[in-house]
Write a structure and sequence with these properties.
Number of helices of chain A: 8
Shape of chain B: globular
CATH superfamily of the largest domain in chain B: P-loop containing nucleotide triphosphate hydrolases
Protein name (chain B): ABC transporter ATP-binding protein
Structural class of chain B: alpha/beta
Strand content of chain A: under 5%
Largest interface: A-B, 28 and 39 residues
Number of strands of chain A: 0
Pfam families (chain B): ABC_tran
Distance between the termini of chain B: 43 Å
Strand content of chain B: 25-35%
Largest sheet of chain B: 6 strands, mixed
Number of helices of chain B: 11
Oligomer: heterodimer
Keywords (chain A): Membrane, Transmembrane, Transmembrane helix
Order of helices and strands of chain A: HHHHHHHH
Number of strands of chain B: 14
Helix content of chain A: 55-70%
GO molecular function, one term (chain B): ATP binding
CATH topology of the largest domain in chain B: Rossmann fold
Radius of gyration of chain B: 22 Å
CATH architecture of the largest domain in chain B: 3-Layer(aba) Sandwich
InterPro entries (chain B): AAA+_ATPase, ABC_transporter-like_ATP-bd, P-loop_NTPase
Radius of gyration of chain A: 19 Å
Chain lengths: ~240, ~290
């Protein structure tokens, strides 16, 4: 066993087994986006970036995966002799790296898409208002996706901890999670959630302020998750 | 190395319900303990706190002189296997789950795990969610044994196993215990089947420790007498009768408590057959619910 595996066994395990799976999911999403794009090109006119539309689905993957990390993985790790503290310290590191990799891969996707659209003579426009103004604004695209995925994954973990610990009482965490996601939406220029449009917050904050708000909401989600999970009892079946 | 477990004033509450009341016990290392009790007596709550799965509501659980809860130095030397496992994600294959255990558990014995997987005939490529109940239990038992934890606990881990698999598990547990002495606690309702494993027995009743003693001492607390009905009735008069059966003129009675010399002499003189009482019969008698729990 190498040094990182000994010192950071949980983060190392997740990075070497779960990160490849998530990259595989992203690749699947890109393939689907490509197929849709091909269909639109054949039967209609391509006007906007396919990745800018499909890429937003990534946040749901991040939310669900974050939920799984607390709801399913944490109890299993405890059974194998690790502590909550170890898990709750190493998982955010894993989330930071993983969402960075996914955001980087998505940014590369935007770059590749730019070349394709240019070659095909299609207009490469954004689907709706974003923090980045152009599909070639790679640095902001990367930062925006990183913050979005990180925030959604951390919020998913918060919800996972809430529903595991409080069972049905976990619904009490939903309004808090919605608020966190809405604030996080600033980092991607997206303040809307499905079925909910939040126009209360200004959308022209500027990149640094928006990213700072996104980071703050992520930290709040991590903190709330910590509060719920740090002494969370493992569910047991009593006979 | 064996570890001593010390529990003092332990209380576990679930909201208003109290599962364990002020429980104190010291379990020296290097023994196999049987943890017995009726449903809801607090066995799982006790084991969960010993494993650090649950924080005590009050009191202390100390292993090797250190508190257990959120103490990685201790939790990685403790392993609790419960019914249903929880040792792997249902979507993982057995092979993947073994690799996860290997990477998380410092003392994991991969070679021994492979031996146990062969012994229990577990399909490596099958997902855990697709295993039968007995296979899941066998896999959980595999993880419990191959973890090589200094404190290994099995909470109804045999449920779903067929008789031959249960026997294989018991034989393997005993063989491995002899080769590598450690502290093993087995919680079970199969009292008669699994009691040959126990060196000492703990019995919980309604969240309180009712009894903690050697199995042989427990056995000595009961005796069965068989012979002519009238003679048997005379000898056991005034004693606590656990069970009695009569076939024609012959009666068999199990009593709680050792026979004093006078009664023993009278029984022998009358030609009554004396024998031991099954641990399960003693257990049933000892754990009769009190009025409050009825």
């Amino acid at each position: 066993m190498n040094r990182p595996a000994r010192r950071w066994p949980i983060a190392y395990l997740l990075l070497t087994t779960h990160l490849p799976f998530l990259v595989f999911c992203l690749a699947g999403l890109l393939v689907v986006a490509g197929l849709v794009l091909g269909g639109v090109a054949v039967f209609g006119a391509v006007r906007i970036s396919a990745l800018d539309v499909g890429g937003q689905l990534l946040r749901w993957l991040a939310l669900g995966y974050g939920y799984y990390l607390l709801r399913t993985m944490l109890p299993m790790v405890l059974v194998h002799g690790r502590t909550r503290r170890e898990y709750l310290c190493q998982v955010p590191v894993f989330q930071l790296i993983t969402t960075g990799v996914l955001a980087g891969a998505t940014t590369l996707g935007y770059a590749a898409e730019s070349l394709l659209y240019r070659a095909a003579g299609w207009p490469h426009q954004l689907a709706e208002a974003r923090l980045y103004s152009d599909t070639t604004d790679h640095l902001v695209i990367f930062a925006s996706y990183w913050m979005m995925l990180l925030g959604w994954m951390a919020t998913g973990s918060f919800l996972g901890a809430a529903f595991y610990r409080l069972r049905a009482g976990g619904v009490l965490a939903l309004p808090v999670a919605l608020l966190l996601l809405a604030v996080n939406g600033l980092s991607n220029g997206v303040l809307s959630l499905p079925f909910i449009k939040l126009d209360l917050l200004p959308q022209d904050l500027g990149v640094p302020a928006a990213l700072t708000l996104g980071a703050a909401s992520t930290l709040v989600a991590v903190g709330l998750c910590w509060l719920l999970a740090r002494d969370m009892p493992l569910r047991t079946r009593t006979s | 190395m064996t570890l001593t477990i010390e529990v003092s004033g332990l209380q576990v509450r679930y909201g208003e319900a109290v599962a364990l009341h002020d429980l104190s016990v010291r379990l020296p290392g290097g023994r196999i303990y049987g943890l017995l009790g009726r449903n809801g007596s607090g066995k799982t709550s006790l084991l969960s706190t010993l494993a650090g799965f649950r924080k005590p509501s009050a009191g202390a659980v100390v292993i090797d002189g250190q508190p257990v809860f959120e103490n990685p130095q201790i939790t990685r030397r403790v392993c609790l296997i419960q019914e249903g496992g929880g040792v792997g994600d249902d979507t993982d294959t057995v092979k993947d789950a073994v690799q996860v255990a290997q990477r998380l558990r410092p003392g994991w014995d991969a070679q021994y795990a492979a031996t146990l997987i062969d012994l229990f005939e577990l399909p490596l490529r099958k997902r855990i969610g697709e295993l039968s109940r007995g296979q899941r239990s066998a896999f959980a038992a595999t993880v419990g044994l191959a973890s090589r934890a200094a404190v290994s606990m099995f909470d109804e881990a045999h449920l779903g196993m067929d008789a031959s698999t249960r026997q294989a598990f018991q034989d393997e547990l005993l063989r491995d215990f002899i080769a590598r002495p450690r502290t093993i606690i087995i919680s079970t309702h199969l009292v008669e089947e699994q009691s040959p494993l126990f060196e000492r027995v703990l019995i919980l009743r309604e969240g309180r420790l009712l009894l903690h003693e050697d199995l042989d001492e427990l056995r000595a607390q009961g005796v069965s007498l068989t012979g002519p009905a009238a003679t048997v009735d005379d000898v056991v008069a005034g004693l606590t009768v656990l069970n009695q059966q009569q076939l024609g003129p012959t009666k068999s009675v199990m009593v709680y408590g050792a026979l004093d010399d006078a009664r023993r002499a009278a029984a022998e003189a009358a030609g009554l057959e004396l024998g031991p009482v099954a641990v399960q019969d003693l257990f049933i008698h000892l754990t009769e619910p009190t009025g409050a729990a009825r």
